[in-house]
């Protein structure tokens, strides 16, 4: 009987370890399911954000014109517009009030910087557009003049919504 006790103890220990491992696997499965659910819940935001990123990256691919100043503005304007588009997407889906205020500030500041770059080149400033506060989830982030974003003058992409100039 004495020889069987160590074997029995080892068998019980193995069974307990297997049970603990099974419990750990079950917890891992639950943990894996939660992020997948979270990702599914934020899929609309992620899709909108990815669209903004893709549009920004494509618009920044500018052929050098020989004018460093114009090339800089041609690349930086879509970069800033990308920040605006991502901030708008956040305002549609994000809930953190501090981040929502920051997103609104990003929109205003990036619009001002795009305007400053245009003015520095002697071009007219784009029409001012108020920062959105409660964009509707169904409203597209694609600016009305997005087709103009492939030209050196990327300012057509500035318009978030038409507003009369005063």
From TrEMBL:
PANTHER family attached to this UniProt entry: SLL0788 PROTEIN (PTHR36933:SF1)
Name of the featured protein: DUF305 domain-containing protein
Keyword check for Transferase: no
Region Disordered: start-end pairs: 125-166
Biological source species: Bosea psychrotolerans
Keywords (A to Z) from UniProt: Signal
Residues in the signal sequence: 1-28
Keyword Ion transport assigned: no
Lineage, top ranks: Bacteria, Pseudomonadati, Pseudomonadota, Alphaproteobacteria, Hyphomicrobiales
């Amino acid at each position: 009987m004495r020889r069987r006790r160590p074997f029995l103890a080892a068998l019980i220990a193995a069974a307990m370890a297997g049970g603990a491992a099974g419990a750990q696997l079950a917890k891992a499965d639950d943990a894996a399911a939660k992020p997948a659910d979270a990702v599914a819940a934020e899929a609309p935001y992620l899709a909108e954000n990815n669209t903004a990123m893709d549009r920004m990256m494509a618009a920044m691919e500018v052929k050098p014109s020989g004018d460093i100043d114009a090339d800089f503005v041609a690349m930086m304007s879509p970069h800033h517009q990308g920040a605006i588009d991502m901030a708008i997407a956040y305002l549609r889906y994000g809930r953190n009030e501090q981040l929502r205020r920051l997103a609104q500030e990003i929109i205003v500041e990036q619009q001002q910087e795009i305007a400053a770059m245009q003015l520095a080149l002697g071009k007219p400033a784009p029409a001012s557009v108020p920062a959105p506060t409660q964009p509707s989830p169904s409203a597209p982030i694609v600016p009305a003049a997005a087709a103009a974003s492939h030209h050196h003058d990327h300012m057509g992409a500035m318009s978030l919504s038409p507003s009369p100039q005063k």
